């Protein structure tokens, strides 16, 4: 009898010792044996921020409510193979790491936390093996990342308790039940990296296009800089020569230029840099030039073997020879000048150019207000004297032809030379010349106006000074097929 009592006492002590050991291992949580086997662990309300590391391996129920857990690491629970219920409600969980795949028929409480989204990998295919998942009272963000949960909740309705899950954001879905939100409404704003990727994808071609355009613009700018431009007021045909003037953009001056002339002749001339003065290239071509003949001319910078861009082509028609100079075979010897030019002061430079061309290249005598008005006399007396002593009065018209003084000059010339719309003296002429495509004053509209851009301008202008025509010695050269270069 004594031996049997001793065995019973030892058995009770062993059980008590084992239970005491289990309670110690659960600290700071409390552990109680489950009637069906295993251990129930309760860690609620302890303010814990992490799961205890000493949970019994035979834990079947874990209570962890009213704590401060923010991140749940599921891998820490995977060792609890007998786990059936986990209550993590009323914590501060905002993210879950790991997967539920290591659990079988688990009841999981995640209500009243701070979850906004769940990665599909968290539940994955294990949702079919979960008993229930409590997800209500979380600030769910119903966007494209949570669409899978919406679809799985429809598919596995028994896995989610009757208490509904609601959206907290975006604002347009706030308070709506997840099950009533249309799948089309689970959208995401385009991510920054996507915008950057699209920007880069679209931007690279644009950058390439920009580089190409910039290169072309630079090349065109360089070509424009290298492209010569004829100075039209300086390109003057005479009876036996062509006087040509051209220039380049500021800062560019080639070592030589090549002139191409076609018409009665075909001629290529290389012009050295010595022909350039103050940025203006000047060339007089006499060889092979005939009177009353049309020539086309263009120029390029460089040499015949290394040419730059070509200028626009100009057309010049040589004039008839034998212009009469005042005093030679002239009946009206009272004229001191062949011509007088009047116009607006803003056209002074072009007026001076025209005057010098007539004097230098056609041996005529002329004058302008800015150069030849006598000092001390009134401008009215000077004007009257200039009109009366000049055979031809040229009126230069442009868009600048405005103001009282220029209008007075035109009216005075018109009255002195063409009173009552008839010539007072047939030996004098009034010739209007347009520098630009401008309106012609009413008092001059009965007269033929010459335009400086007309290829026959110089021939028609000089015809007013000369009635002769080409003689046999100055006949037009035989036409030759037009080419750009000499063989």
Automatic annotation (TrEMBL):
GO cellular component terms, A-Z: membrane
First and last residue of the signal peptide: 1-20
Lineage: Eukaryota, Metazoa, Chordata, Cephalochordata, Leptocardii
Coiled-coil spans in chain: none
Predominant place of localization: membrane
Gene encoding the protein: LOC118406080
Domain TIR: 335-465
Membrane topology classification: Single-pass membrane protein
The organism's place on the tree of life at top rank: Eukaryota
Compartments, record wording: Membrane
Pfam families: LRRCT (PF01463), TIR_2 (PF13676)
Protein name as annotated: Uncharacterized protein LOC118406080
Gene Ontology MF annotations: signaling receptor activity
């Amino acid at each position: 009898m004594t031996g049997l009592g001793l065995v019973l006492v030892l058995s009770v002590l062993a059980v008590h010792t084992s239970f005491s050991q289990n309670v110690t291992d659960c600290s700071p949580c409390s552990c109680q044996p489950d009637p069906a086997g295993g251990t129930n662990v309760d860690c609620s309300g302890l303010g814990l921020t992490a799961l205890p590391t000493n949970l019994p391996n035979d834990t079947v129920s874990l209570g962890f409510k009213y704590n401060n857990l923010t991140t749940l690491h599921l891998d820490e629970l995977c060792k609890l193979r007998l786990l059936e219920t986990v209550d993590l409600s009323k914590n501060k969980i905002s993210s879950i790491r790991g997967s539920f795949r290591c659990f079988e028929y688990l009841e999981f409480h995640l209500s009243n936390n701070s979850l906004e989204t769940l990665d599909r990998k968290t539940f994955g295919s294990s949702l079919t093996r979960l008993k229930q998942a409590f997800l209500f009272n979380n600030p769910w963000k119903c966007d494209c990342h949570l669409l899978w949960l919406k679809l799985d909740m429809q598919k596995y309705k028994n896995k989610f308790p009757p208490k509904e899950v609601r959206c907290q954001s975006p604002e347009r879905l706030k308070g709506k039940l997840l099950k009533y939100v249309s799948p089309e409404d689970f959208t995401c704003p385009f991510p920054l990296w996507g915008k950057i990727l699209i920007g880069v994808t679209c931007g690279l071609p644009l950058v390439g296009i920009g580089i190409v355009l910039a290169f072309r613009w630079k090349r065109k700018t360089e070509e424009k800089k290298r492209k010569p431009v004829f100075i039209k007021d300086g390109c003057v045909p005479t009876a036996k020569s062509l006087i040509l003037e051209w220039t380049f953009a500021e800062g560019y001056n080639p070592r030589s230029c090549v002139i191409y002339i076609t018409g009665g002749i075909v001629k290529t001339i290389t012009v050295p840099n010595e022909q350039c003065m103050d940025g203006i290239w000047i060339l007089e071509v006499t060889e092979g030039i005939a009177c009353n003949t049309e020539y086309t001319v263009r120029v390029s910078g460089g040499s015949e073997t290394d040419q730059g861009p070509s200028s626009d082509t100009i057309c010049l028609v040589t004039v008839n020879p034998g212009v009469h100079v005042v005093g030679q075979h002239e009946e009206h010897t009272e004229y001191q000048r062949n011509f007088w030019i009047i116009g607006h002061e803003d056209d002074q430079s072009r007026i001076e150019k025209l005057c010098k061309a007539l004097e230098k290249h056609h041996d005529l005598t002329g004058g302008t207000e800015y150069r030849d008005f006598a000092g001390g006399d009134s401008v009215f007396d000077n004007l009257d004297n200039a009109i009366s002593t000049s055979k031809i009065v040229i009126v230069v018209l442009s868009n600048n032809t405005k103001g009282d003084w220029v209008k007075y000059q035109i009216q005075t010339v018109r009255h002195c030379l063409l009173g009552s719309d008839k010539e007072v003296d047939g030996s004098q002429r009034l010739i209007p010349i347009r520098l630009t495509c401008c309106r012609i004053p009413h008092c001059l509209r009965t007269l033929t106006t010459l335009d400086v851009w007309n290829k026959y301008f110089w021939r028609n202008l000089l015809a007013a000074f000369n009635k002769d025509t080409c003689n046999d010695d100055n006949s037009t050269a035989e036409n030759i097929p037009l080419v750009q270069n000499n063989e």
